[in-house]
Design goal:
mainly alpha; 1 helix
Amino acid sequence: FRALDKDGLDLAASNEKVVLSAKQVMSNIQSTNYRLSEKATLLRSNDARASEAMATTMKVLEEVVASSKSHQQLTNDFSSKSLVLLTDVKQLDTDSMEISEKIAQEGKICMTS
């Protein structure tokens, strides 16, 4: 009976070590799962923020394109109006030269008469 008693104590000690090891393995698994869950939550949060940043960037770029088109149209309009005005000024300058020449000629005619 002593041998059986000793073997029973050894078996109980071995079983206790196995149970302790299993508990440590389970604790490590739970800890790892918890950390993975936290990382997955952070990843989803970062992904959502990245999506929001991309959406905001797209809106800004669309506004830049619209602003550029508007600026281009205003520049074209200004150039066209400037060209018309310069053409008018050139014609006025030509008309003024003709009038000045006629006045000068009439002044010479009046002086000689």
